[in-house]
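REVIEWER CHECKLIST
Item 1: Sequence provided? yes
Item 2: Single chain? yes
Item 3: Sequence as submitted:
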Amino acid sequence: MKVRILELIEGAKEAKGLAVIIDVFRAFSLECYLFDAGASRCYPIGKLEDAFAMKKTHPDYYLFGERKGARVRGCDFGNSPSQARGTDFRGKTIIHTTSAGTQGIVNAAAAGATEIMTASLVNARAAAAYILSRNPGEVSIVAMGKAGLETAGEDVLCARYLEYLLKHPEAVRHPDADQFDIQQRADGLKSTWGRHFFDAASQEVFPIEDFYLCTQCNRFPFVIRADRTEDGTLYTGRLDLPGQE
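Item 4: Structure as written out by the authors:
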């Protein structure tokens, strides 16, 4: 298995084989919480106008829209897992457009990746288990970074952890064998790449609770995988893995 770590939108455009799109703060952490809350399907959208057009056609869908971290006016939600809590998402369809994460899915699909999935710290071990079960010849791990344009340490950390797990399958099968210390490293983001969550002036956009929700490592035993509808529309859905707890 050849494993490459790429970064940003440009990296997504180079993705080959099985592409893993990473966005820890916060797109794909959020989607894990949404699927855990019962959401049935999510449409990753690149352009805002396309997201609003889909919402107009399907007013019952929930529209999550973010640019520069903040909720886009006219959207039901932004990109915050804590601010979405308390809503009943059972059986609901999600439209999701963000500065980084969803751009990675769209660009990896355009690049011709043979399979696309997402990952974040909250489901990294499940992502590794899925990849190992697929045993692809090539894996492209894409750390999407800030707005898809600048490196973000939390995404690189997740990418390196996933790479470690793929190279040490015993750490996937037996968590006690995991020597990466991912939770300790994730906690350390509080004073580095996650410090904006603790700025009193930015709580409306970056609530403190989001930091903790996004750094609960290996909380979820499922993966989020991309597929296409009969008319070719890209969507993501939850895939539960046998043997994961």
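Item 5: Key structural point noted by reviewer: Residues 186 and 215 are 6 Å apart (CA to CA).
Item 6: Recommendation: ____
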